[in-house]
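Continuing the batch. This is chain 6 of the set; chains 1 through 5 are on the previous pages. Same settings as before, nothing changed between runs. Recording input and output for traceability.
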Amino acid sequence: MDTRIDEALNILKDTGPEYAHRFSNHGPMAAEALAAMGCEGRVVSWTKQYRRRLAGRPTVIETVQPNRWEAALGDIQRFGDWVVFFRRELGGATWPAVLRRWALRLAPGIVAAAYHGVIRTGHAVRSLARGETEARRLELAEGLAYWASRYQSLPGTPGINTSGLRPSAAISRIELLPSDRRLYRTLIFEKVKRLDGFLPFEKVVNLVDTPTEATLFLLDMTSAFVRIYLANARDAGSAITFIHTVTGPGAVHLMAPHLPGETVGLLLRYAWQASAAIYAAIGQRRQPDSLEDRDINRKTLVDRAVKTGDEHAIKFAEVCLRLYNINPDPAYLVASEHASQVLTRGRA
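Output for chain 6:
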């Protein structure tokens, strides 16, 4: 078992979930993505470089009560309390048991911190599945704590009466938020808050059924949203925004082997709602002008993403390659290549 991810997690162990202007700490996620792409030799050096920008861990305020945990949901000031809570949970049960219990409870808030709670949880789960260590168990506690402390629900509740559409077909039925109600120069979770009170969005979660075949649903959804990315990503800021419409569902894919089918189906339904929310809140177009079907060398794609040093480019490359290996849709590779290009320019 390669232990360089554990070394990276130890470098990051005293850091908080956010830094600067409420930006998410991507360190553990990107480090794990590097390892998953076969770049273990870059994990520690990248993590040390990234660590310089991070803030310290928030203090503990009060205990999250097992019978009143809902009261602490969505309060980022309680992140430290949630970490203690999930460490205690993991001390009394196996990590798959804790994941099963809490993924179901937290599913309606999957858009938390622009999906970063569930993304961090998903990367922690894959790392644990490769080999259980204390550092990896603690990282799962941190991921779940971020998901809980930034918990954010969206308008609309899954029902049994749905339009029964595939995600790729349902996208055309999403009504976009009018421009005069939008926010642009702010964080993603603030942008999607503008959907509160926007009645057309409430039906979006019920445009699709809870999937019985989770993999097909996930592939259809992510294939559609990489096209949303290509249609709407024009610079570093917009690229980062629309990357999350794919990496969020991609995190559910990482957790799926360790969850009951019913939970996976519910998570995917809420992931559809969350990605649709990002599109509805600031998107403009459904399809790119064109999609050139050309040969893109996958090793070169990884090298380009790693060379940017950008956490979003790295995570996006990993999920796009992972999904492409199951469903060889060239849009995944084109989108990853584009992200590496614009995020390199964004750092220039």
